[in-house]
Amino acid sequence: MKTSICLLLFSPNLQLLYLSSFYAISNEGIGQVLKKSSKIRHLNFAHCSRLKQLIMNLKVSTLVVLNLLHTRICDKSLYMISTSCFGLLHLDLGHCYNVTENGVMQIVENCTQLREINLQGCCKVVADVFVAEIFLASWMPCVLVCWK
Asked: Signal peptide: which range, if any (predicted)?
């Protein structure tokens, strides 16, 4: 398995990385892949339950889709994402129980291209208050906030 991941490090044209339910993922490994893959557009870490912090010290300007569904991601990571991924269009935070309104607002304020954000099952985000904050902000483009 390590050999397969190492091969990714030498793929500068990599655009989609799908690691859903990949339990051995580490921040160091993610950082190495992103450092070598300047054209990355889609990252899927759904159900990577060991993923608590996503350290994105690099500018990932090409990233448009980020799936963090059912991870243990926190507001600190959302802040790092918000300062690294300015072109983000779709963000899935469904069932990320450590995410709060503060972290989501960092994303909404800094990722100005954002068109869709899934907050289904984010129990620390109060739906009514948060939606009102987004739509009252005149600087905010159309964002679809999903709750079910």
From this structure: 1-16
